[in-house]
C-alpha cells in the first residue's frame, strides 16, 4: 500500500476509496473473515468576533478511520488518524487481536450484501462557501454592529461566529461495497445581551445550511438576536399551575428527538425505552404522521446510505398516530428479529404532519398558556418517559404574549404529552434533521413560585 497524505488530496473520492480498499485488504491478510471501514475527513475554519474585534480564528483539518474486523462472529475495532502504511497495519493488528479474544456475538457481522447501497444518488450535499477568513471576519463584525445598533438596551454581544466546513464520508466493507459522498455545513450565529436597570437577558439567533445561498442574511440574524433578547427583559416567574404549552420549532425538535430515541433499536433491545412493545399501537393523535425523507437535495439530514452502508429509503414511523416501524440498523434489527430500516446512525430528515396555522394563530388557539422558547437541563428518563426541564418563554393570555417568563420547570410524561399533541404549526424550522413547526400540547405541569 502506498503512503498517503490524505489531506493533500482530501476530497478526491478515488484516492479515498483506494485507502479504504487497502485497509480492507490488510484485514483479510491478517486473517479476518470480514471487515468494514468508516473513514471521515473534514476541513474548514471558524471565526469569532466580540466587541468589534477578532476573538479567535480556528482552522481544522481532521481525519479518522474506524476499522472493525470479524473472525466469524467475534468482533474487534480500532481507530486511527494516521493513515500511513505502518499505522494502518498496526491498527488492523490491534483490531484482530481484540476479535480473537472476544466472545462470539450471534448478531454481529456486516449488513447483508443485497441491502447495501451499490447504486446511490448524488444529493448535492456539497456546496462550498467561497469566503475567505478576512471576509468572514468582516461579515461577523458587521453582524455584531447591526445587533448592537438595534436598541440602546443591547449593551454587548457575547460573540458572533461564522463556521464553514467541508467533509467527506467513505464507508467500505468486504462485500465489495465502497461508497462515498461529500457534504458541507455553514453557520452564522449571533449572541447578544440586553440590559435594563438591573435586569440582564441573553438570547441568540443563527442560520445554518449546506448551501451558503440558503443562509439567512447577517442582518436578519442580527435583528432577530436583538429582538429576542429585548423581549426577554422584565421576565417573571409563574406560580405553580397546569396549563397548555406551545414549544417553538427549535424546542419542538427536541421533543420529537426523544420519540426517535425511544423507538431506536439500541434502546429497545436493551429494554430502556418507555415505548417498548408499542409497535402497532397509537402514540400520537390520529392526525399525526412522522416520516423520513433521506434523499432531499441540499438538506442537512440527507444521506444516500447509513452507517452500515445500507441504502437509505423513505420510512413511515407513525401513520394516523400509530407506531408503524422502529428505527433500526443492522445489529439492532437482528437483535429484535427484524429487518434494518437503513437507520444505523439515526434518522435522516424526519418530517411531522403540520397544520395551516403559524405561531401567531397557534397562540390564539391556545388562548391562555405558556410559550416555551428555551429549555435547560437533561431531565428526560427514556425508560419511564418522565420529563422535567428548566424552561424560559412567555406567558400568553387571550392569544397574545403578556410578559416573559423565566426560572420555571415544566414537567410531564412523554407518552402522555405525545397523546395530548393538539396541533403542529406551519412555521417549520429547516435548520436540522427533524423538520417540525411549533407544537401545541393540551397541558403540562408548570413548577414555579
Tell me about this structure.
This protein folds into two domains: 13-230, PmbA/TldD fold, CATH 3.30.2290; 241-447, no CATH class. Strands 3-2-1-4-5-6 form a six-stranded antiparallel sheet. Strands 7-12-13-14-17 form a five-stranded mixed barrel. It has nine helices and 17 strands. The protein is α+β, with helices and mostly antiparallel strands and 449 residues long. Mean pLDDT is 95; it is low at 1-8.
Key descriptive features of the protein:
PmbA/TldD fold; 2 domains; 5-stranded mixed barrel; disordered N terminus; 449 residues; 9 helices; single chain; alpha+beta
Layout of secondary structure:
Elements: H1 13-29, E1 34-50, E2 53-71, E3 74-80, H2 85-100, H3 133-148, E4 154-173, E5 177-196, E6 199-209, H4 218-231, E7 241-247, H5 249-262, H6 265-269, E8 290-292, E9 315-319, E10 322-323, H7 330-336, E11 350-352, H8 359-366, E12 369-376, E13 386-397, E14 400-413, H9 414-419, E15 421-424, E16 434-435, E17 439-447
Parallel strand pairs: 7-12, 11-16
Antiparallel strand pairs: 1-2, 1-4, 2-3, 4-5, 5-6, 7-17, 8-9, 8-11, 9-10, 12-13, 13-14, 14-17, 15-17
Main sheet makeup = 6 strands, antiparallel
What is the overall number of helices? Answer: 9
Briefly note the CATH topology name of the largest domain: PmbA/TldD fold
Q: What count of structural domains?
A: 2
Q: What are the low-pLDDT stretches, counting only 5+ consecutive residues below 50? A: 1-8
Alpha-beta classification? alpha+beta
Tell me the total number of β-strands.
17
Instruction: Tell the overall outline.
Output: globular
Beta percentage is: 35-45%
> Under the CATH scheme, which class of the largest domain?
Alpha Beta
Terminal residue distance: 68 Å
Task: Identify the CATH architecture of the largest domain.
Answer: 2-Layer Sandwich
- Overall average residue pLDDT: 95
Amino acid at each position: 500500500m502506498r503512503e498517503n497524505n490524505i489531506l493533500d488530496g482530501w476530497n478526491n473520492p478515488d484516492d479515498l476509496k483506494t485507502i479504504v480498499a487497502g485497509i480492507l485488504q490488510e484485514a483479510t491478510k491478517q486473517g479476518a473473515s470480514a471487515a468494514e471501514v468508516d473513514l471521515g475527513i473534514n476541513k474548514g475554519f471558524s471565526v469569532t468576533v466580540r466587541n468589534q474585534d477578532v476573538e479567535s480564528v480556528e482552522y481544522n483539518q481532521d481525519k479518522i478511520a474506524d476499522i472493525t474486523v470479524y473472525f466469524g462472529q467475534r468482533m474487534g475495532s480500532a481507530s486511527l488518524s494516521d493513515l500511513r502504511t505502518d499505522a494502518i497495519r498496526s491498527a488492523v493488528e490491534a483490531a484482530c487481536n481484540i476479535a480473537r479474544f472476544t466472545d462470539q456475538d450471534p448478531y454481529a457481522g456486516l449488513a447483508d450484501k443485497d441491502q447495501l447501497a451499490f447504486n446511490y444518488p448524488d444529493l448535492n450535499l456539497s456546496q462550498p462557501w467561497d469566503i475567505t477568513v478576512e471576509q468572514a471576519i468582516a461579515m461577523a463584525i458587521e453582524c455584531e454592529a447591526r445587533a448592537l445598533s438595534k436598541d440602546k438596551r443591547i449593551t454587548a454581544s457575547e460573540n458572533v461566529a461564522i463556521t464553514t466546513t467541508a467533509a467527506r464520508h467513505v464507508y467500505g466493507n468486504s462485500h465489495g461495497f465502497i461508497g462515498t459522498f461529500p457534504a458541507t455545513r455553514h453557520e452564522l450565529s449571533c449572541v447578544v445581551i440586553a440590559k435594563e436597570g438591573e435586569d440582564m437577558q441573553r438570547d441568540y439567533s443563527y442560520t445554518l445550511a449546506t448551501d451558503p445561498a440558503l443562509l439567512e442574511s447577517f442582518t436578519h440574524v442580527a435583528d432577530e438576536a436583538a429582538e429576542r433578547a429585548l423581549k426577554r427583559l422584565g421576565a417573571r416567574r409563574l406560580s405553580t399551575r397546569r396549563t397548555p404549552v406551545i414549544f417553538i420549532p427549535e424546542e419542538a425538535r427536541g421533543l420529537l428527538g426523544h420519540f426517535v430515541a425511544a423507538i431506536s433499536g439500541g434502546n429497545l433491545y436493551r429494554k430502556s425505552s418507555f415505548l417498548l412493545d408499542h409497535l402497532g399501537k397509537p402514540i400520537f393523535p390520529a392526525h399525526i404522521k412522522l416520516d423520513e425523507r433521506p434523499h432531499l437535495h441540499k438538506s442537512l439530514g440527507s444521506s444516500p446510505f447509513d452507517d452500515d452502508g445500507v441504502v437509505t429509503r423513505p420510512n413511515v414511523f407513525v401513520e394516523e398516530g400509530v407506531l408503524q416501524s422502529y428505527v433500526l440498523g443492522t445489529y439492532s434489527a437482528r437483535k429484535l428479529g427484524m429487518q434494518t430500516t437503513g437507520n444505523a446512525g439515526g434518522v435522516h430528515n424526519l418530517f411531522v404532519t403540520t397544520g395551516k396555522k403559524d405561531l401567531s394563530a397557534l397562540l390564539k388557539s391556545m388562548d391562555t398558556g405558556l410559550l416555551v422558547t428555551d429549555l435547560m437541563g437533561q431531565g428526560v428518563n427514556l425508560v419511564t418517559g418522565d420529563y422535567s426541564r428548566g424552561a424560559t418563554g412567555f406567558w400568553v393570555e387571550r392569544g397574545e404574549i403578556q410578559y416573559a417568563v423565566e426560572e420555571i420547570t415544566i414537567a410531564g410524561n412523554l407518552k402522555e404529552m405525545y397523546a395530548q399533541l393538539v396541533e403542529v404549526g406551519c412555521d417549520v424550522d429547516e435548520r436540522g434533521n427533524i423538520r417540525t413547526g411549533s407544537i401545541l400540547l393540551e397541558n403540562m405541569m408548570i413548577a414555579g413560585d
